[in-house]
Write a structure and sequence with these properties.
Blueprint (H helix, E strand, L loop, with lengths): L1 H85 L7 H113 L9 H41 L7 E5 L2 E5 L3 H4 L16 H40 L4 H32 L13 H14 L4 E4 L14 E4 L3
Antiparallel strand pairs: 1-2, 3-4
């Protein structure tokens, strides 16, 4: 969608640049066309003025020609009159002849003056006509030149007009593409909003509410804490098993170096009986015996060691079964968290897990106390009790990782001989 927006912005920028260039070309073309049209209009006005002046002069010339024709006719008439007066056939009275002669002489002088005046006017009019014809020719040539320039301008403007048409078509295509891009962006935005709504709806459907409005994240953290508790209990069981094996090996090694004692009479629940101590019984000594003491054990101590070992085995087996049951409960809870959770069943499962964990911790505590009592104050790891500070620090670090789970030591952990930091109780809200 970001690429489409970028492409749409580029198309808009290109479209705007094309529009600016088209407007600039249009302005230049309009300015050139306006200038040429002004020049053509000016030339047309000059041509019209010259044609008007030529028409006036032509009218004057025609008028002068008419006057010339009239004068020519009058001149012909005068000449005919002169010939008539000078003919010998016509006889006039003597007085009338003198007067006619005087009148003819005067008329002849007047006709000569008029003829000269008319000839001067005709010559002047002919010169004016030639000037007008020359000017008309110049104006016609200039008009033809302007028409030629106008046609050349049209030829020059034709590519620009074609380019303008192409630019307009390209602008229309860009506008359509921008509209398509905008529609696509709107569709993508709508689909994005729909997807967000679907995701929010799915999240709201997946979000469950328990009796105490526990969130999924909180449940996952509680499960992680339970898993850590199970792993810790498993480590404790492994350490206890190793300690048990070590004690048994040490007792066997000490039993091999001892001589077989005599038979003794022992008071039992069913009465008095002679206890036969075989090599296997001799190999089992008390785990409370000092490591440096190599004295033979008494029958009471052998009986206590055998009973303690059997109880430890039974408790270890029971603890292993409870640990397996706790693992199954943890797997079941994890499967339930993966799907839709039932709040009441989750609360019951949590309570059961807490009860199992507390019971398992109590049994581990009893086994630790027993082993510590037999091992003369050594921890199940074979280290002094000064390492309790490290366990407390580890517990505090774990409490910082899971702040919503209140972790507090069980009251049973304060018992003498119990290793601090190994038996803890969960304080989870139910």
């Amino acid at each position: 969608m970001q690429a489409d927006k970028t492409k749409a912005a580029d198309l808009r920028a290109a479209y705007q640049a094309h529009q600016d260039e088209v407007h600039r070309i249009k302005r230049e073309c309009e300015r050139d066309i306006r200038r040429l049209m002004d020049e053509i209009k000016g030339k047309d006005r000059v041509i019209l003025a010259l044609e008007k002046e030529l028409g006036v002069q032509t009218g004057q010339t025609q008028k002068l020609l008419l006057q010339k024709e009239a004068l020519d006719e009058q001149l012909v008439q005068v000449r005919e009159a002169e010939r008539y007066h000078s003919s010998p056939k016509r006889e006039l009275p003597p007085g009338i002849g003198d007067m006619a002669e005087l009148m003819g002489v005067q008329d002849q002088h007047m006709d000569e003056r008029d003829v000269r005046r008319f000839q001067l006017k005709i010559a002047e009019l002919n010169s004016v006509i030639r000037k007008l014809e020359d000017r008309n020719t110049l104006l016609a040539d200039e008009r033809n030149e302007l028409l030629k320039r106008s046609r050349e301008t049209e030829v020059q403007l034709k590519p620009l007009v074609e380019k303008n048409k192409r630019m307009n078509k390209k602008n229309e295509d860009l506008l359509h593409s921008i509209q398509r891009m905008e529609e696509k962006i709107k569709n993508l935005t709508r689909e994005n909003v729909e997807m967000k709504e679907k995701l929010s709806a799915q999240a709201s459907l997946k979000r469950h509410t328990s009796l105490n409005d526990l969130s999924l994240t909180r449940d996952e953290q509680e499960i992680e804490f339970l898993r850590l508790q199970v792993l810790e209990q498993q480590h404790v069981i492994d350490d206890l098993s190793l300690e048990r094996e070590r004690l048994l090996r040490s007792k066997r090694q000490r039993g091999k170096s001892l001589k077989p004692p005599k038979k003794h009479v022992v008071e039992t629940f069913f009465g008095f009986d002679e206890e036969s101590v075989d090599s296997e019984t001799l190999s089992e000594t008390s785990c409370n015996t000092d490591r440096t003491d190599r004295a033979p054990a008494t029958p009471e101590e052998d009986l206590d060691d055998t009973t303690t070992r059997e109880e430890a085995d039974l408790r270890f087996c029971q603890l292993t079964r409870e640990y397996q049951a706790l693992q199954r409960a943890y797997a079941l809870l994890q499967e339930q968290v993966g799907g839709t959770l039932d709040a009441e069943r989750e609360a019951r499962t949590r309570e059961q897990l807490q009860a199992d964990l507390l019971r398992c911790q109590a049994k581990i505590e009893d086994l630790e106390k027993l082993l510590v009592e037999k091992g003369q104050g050594l921890s199940p790891w074979g280290q002094p009790r000064d390492d309790a500070g490290w366990s407390v620090l580890a517990r505090r670090e774990e409490g910082r990782k899971f702040p919503h789970l209140s972790i507090h030591p069980s009251p049973m952990s304060a018992a003498p001989g119990c290793v601090p930091g190994t038996v803890w109780a969960l304080g989870m809200p139910v």
